[in-house]
């Protein structure tokens, strides 16, 4: 999927003006205020009505949010109803829910539980299962590993890699954590103040970043990862 000249304006100020390609898996990274969240919301059609959005998307499939494009939010706790059992929120037949739960490594017995009875890692798998239940062509992920402990984060990344291989969807991973992005994605696009600073193959950008901004992001991300471990 190619996103060409995605432009977001508010009060005659251009907040975002970028282009990027999702060939297999692309990480969109940047500090807070870089425009990555605005970009994600624009692709999902979730920006406030006061913002003007223009973009051209080219893809070999029809673009339909909730069908060809699915979304995994950052916080699974706020994405689920606390008072409703998991199965009732899956919105599919029991056999289908069991099948998709097995695909993400969850026991079907969890379908009868409430969200508060599951761990953070289990809830993230539930959200991934919901997103993949429509068999999307593109999966958009909004920092899905940020609130997880290191071991759970690693398991979620391994799960996404396995599911992508099995189901052949493209991924756009929006994050500030380059360390996680490097484990999940083939390509990297670095944003600063709504503009692309540099982009290319993940290994090339990490090995030879062209801007001071990118070098700072890389250094701080991996330093924080080492500290947490």
Question: Please, could you describe this protein's structure?
Answer:
A six-stranded mixed β-sheet has the order 5-6-7-3-8-9, with helices on both faces. The protein has two domains: 160 residues, Rossmann fold; 57 residues, no CATH class. It is an alpha/beta fold. It has nine helices and nine strands. The model has no long low-confidence stretch (mean pLDDT 90). It is 39% helix and 25% strand. It is globular, with a radius of gyration of 18 Å. β8 and β9 form a beta hairpin.
- CATH overall fold name of the largest domain: Rossmann fold
CATH superfamily of the largest domain: P-loop containing nucleotide triphosphate hydrolases
Tell me the strand order in the biggest sheet.
Answer: 5-6-7-3-8-9
CATH class of the largest domain: Alpha Beta
List the uncertain runs.
none
Fill in the keyword field for this structure:
Rossmann fold; 2 domains; alpha/beta; 229 residues
Detail the topology: elements first, then pairings.
Elements (H helix, E strand, L loop, with lengths): L1 E9 L2 E9 L3 E5 L6 H9 L7 E7 L10 E4 L3 H4 L6 H5 L3 H10 L16 H13 L5 E5 L7 H18 L2 E6 L2 H7 L2 E6 L2 E7 H6 L4 H17 L1
Parallel strand pairs: 3-7, 3-8, 5-6, 6-7
Antiparallel strand pairs: 1-2, 1-4, 8-9
Helix pairs in contact: 4-5
């Amino acid at each position: 999927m190619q996103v060409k000249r995605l432009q977001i304006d508010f009060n005659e100020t251009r907040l975002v003006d970028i282009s990027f390609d999702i060939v297999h898996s692309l990480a969109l990274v940047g500090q807070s205020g870089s425009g990555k969240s605005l970009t994600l919301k624009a692709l999902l059609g979730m920006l406030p009505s006061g913002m003007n959005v223009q973009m051209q998307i080219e893809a070999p499939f029809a673009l339909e949010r909730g069908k060809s494009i699915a979304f995994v939010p950052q916080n699974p706790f706020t994405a689920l109803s606390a008072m409703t059992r998991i199965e009732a929120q899956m919105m599919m037949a029991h056999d289908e829910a069991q099948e998709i739960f097995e695909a993400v490594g969850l026991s079907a017995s969890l379908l009868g539980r409430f969200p508060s009875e599951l761990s953070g890692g289990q809830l993230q798998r539930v959200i991934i299962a919901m997103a993949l239940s429509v068999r999307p062509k593109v999966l958009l992920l909004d920092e899905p590993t940020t609130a997880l402990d290191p071991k759970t984060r690693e398991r979620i990344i391994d799960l996404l890699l396995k599911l992508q291989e099995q189901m052949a969807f493209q991924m756009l991973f929006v994050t500030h954590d380059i360390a996680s992005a490097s484990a999940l994605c083939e390509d990297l696009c670095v944003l600063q103040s709504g503009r692309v600073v540099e982009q290319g193959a993940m290994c090339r950008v990490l090995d030879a970043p062209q801007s001071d901004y990118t070098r700072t992001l890389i250094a701080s991300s991996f330093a924080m990862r080492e500290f947490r471990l």
